[in-house]
């Protein structure tokens, strides 16, 4: 099934946890059990389920764990029914961390973004202190830390986007504390020799949330759209999770950063395509600025291969989903926040 073929929630949910043959091979090389720390957000549960499905194909046996606050209690029974052991608690509580099983492979997915501008203390606590405590607890594990491209400098389209080697330039409390999260793990790696991969993500697309859903809802409701970001990177959540899973194989000391963003796409062109498919007339006012938050993930593509899902397919699916009143989580991405205030 292609992204653009998705019509129902069941098809969408199944699609997001369907592994590629490449992922099946990679997961087969990862030895040991899997623990997702904070893996109950937009991507976490699907990431663990994707590993689980890849293991089913390869016949590999292992244990799967998720530790989180589980703000949605229904996820506990759902995960337990799927054979995923759950632990409900605070990841900054050292007593809780000690109760967690010793696991070889860790996906660290906890973080705080929306609301950071108004809550400096919480941002520092969740994005810097908590990762360090988790790193101390699992210093003997291999860790993939979910990070962001938010702290890269803005660049012109001609540059091809920010690469992993460019000097960082955080703007706003989220960018600074997200960089702090990476450095918390850098300190752990230097101190204990822990192998870590720094997975820098930008804008994974799902039909329950994502930049394309945000834009499609704007097109459906508005006749004029003022852009602050003229360009955006697009990658499907399925491809983004596959790269995150594969990153564990490149965990190193010192930690290795890798961007996962998908290609750069012109937002005005997305709007025009969506408006045509929806039968709408929408005027677009572009930002006259020359530099934007755009990223380059040639390293990931070169290392792990081309993505399965094309931007054109994702755009088509988002139009149909929003046009037909499909379910969404009402979690705007904030991609228009060019000032990095969240």
Overview of this structure, please?
The structure is a single chain. With 342 residues, this protein is α/β, with parallel strands linked by helices. It has one domain: NAD(P)-binding Rossmann-like Domain (Rossmann fold, 3-Layer(aba) Sandwich). It is built from twelve helices and 13 strands. The strands form four sheets. Strands 3-2-1-4-5-6-11 form a seven-stranded parallel β-sheet, sandwiched between helices. It has a two-stranded parallel sheet with strand order 7-10. It has a two-stranded parallel ribbon with strand order 8-13. α4 links the parallel β2 and β3. The longest helix has 21 residues.
Task: List descriptors.
alpha/beta, 12 helices, globular
Radius of gyration (CA) equals 19 Å
Report how far apart the termini are. Answer: 35 Å
For the record, what CATH class applies?
A: Alpha Beta
Biggest β-sheet description: 7 strands, parallel
Mean pLDDT: 96
CATH topological fold name: Rossmann fold
Number of DSSP helices?
12
Query: Structural class of the helix and strand makeup?
Result: alpha/beta
Number of domains: 1
Q: Order of helices and strands, N to C? A: HHEHEHEHEHEHEEHEEEHEEHEHH
Shape: globular
CATH-wise, what's the superfamily?
NAD(P)-binding Rossmann-like Domain
Topology:
Blueprint: H1 9-16, H2 21-29, E1 34-37, H3 44-58, E2 64-68, H4 74-81, E3 84-88, H5 94-99, E4 105-108, H6 120-137, E5 142-148, H7 172-192, E6 196-201, E7 204-205, H8 211-221, E8 224-226, E9 231-233, E10 235-236, H9 237-247, E11 256-260, E12 264-266, H10 267-278, E13 283-285, H11 298-304, H12 311-323
Helix pairs in contact: 2-3, 3-9, 6-7, 8-10, 8-12, 10-12
């Amino acid at each position: 099934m292609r992204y653009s073929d998705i019509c129902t929630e069941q098809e969408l949910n199944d699609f997001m946890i369907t592994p590629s043959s490449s992922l099946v091979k990679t997961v087969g090389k990862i030895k040991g059990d899997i623990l997702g720390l904070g893996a109950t957000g937009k991507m976490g549960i699907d990431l663990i389920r994707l590993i689980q499905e890849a293991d089913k194909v390869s016949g590999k046996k292992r244990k799967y764990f998720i530790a989180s606050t589980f703000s949605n209690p229904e996820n506990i029974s759902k995960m337990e029914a799927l054979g995923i052991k759950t632990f409900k608690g605070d990841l900054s509580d050292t007593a809780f961390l000690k109760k967690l099983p010793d696991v070889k492979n860790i996906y660290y997915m906890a973080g705080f973004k929306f609301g950071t501008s108004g809550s400096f203390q919480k941002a520092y606590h969740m994005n810097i202190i908590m990762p360090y405590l988790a790193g101390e607890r699992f210093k003997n594990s291999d860790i993939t830390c979910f990070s962001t491209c938010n702290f890269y400098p803005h660049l012109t389209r001609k540059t091809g986007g920010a690469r992993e080697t460019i000097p960082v330039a955080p703007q706003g409390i989220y960018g600074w504390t997200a960089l702090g999260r990476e450095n918390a793990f850098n300190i752990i790696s230097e101190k204990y020799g822990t192998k870590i991969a720094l997975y820098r993500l930008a804008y994974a697309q799902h039909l329950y949330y994502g930049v394309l859903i945000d834009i499609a809802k704007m097109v459906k409701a508005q006749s004029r759209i003022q852009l602050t970001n003229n360009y955006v990177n697009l990658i499907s959540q399925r491809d983004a999770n596959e790269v995150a899973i594969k990153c564990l194989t490149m965990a190193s000391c010192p930690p290795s950063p890798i961007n996962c963003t998908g290609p750069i796409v012109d937002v005005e062109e997305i709007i025009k395509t969506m408006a045509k498919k929806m039968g709408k007339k929408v005027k677009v006012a572009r930002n006259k600025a020359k530099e934007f938050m755009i990223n380059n993930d040639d390293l990931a593509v070169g290392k792990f291969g081309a993505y399965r899902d094309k931007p054109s397919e994702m755009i088509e699916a988002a139009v149909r989903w929003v046009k037909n009143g499909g379910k969404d989580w009402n979690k705007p991405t904030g991609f228009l926040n060019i000032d990095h205030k969240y």
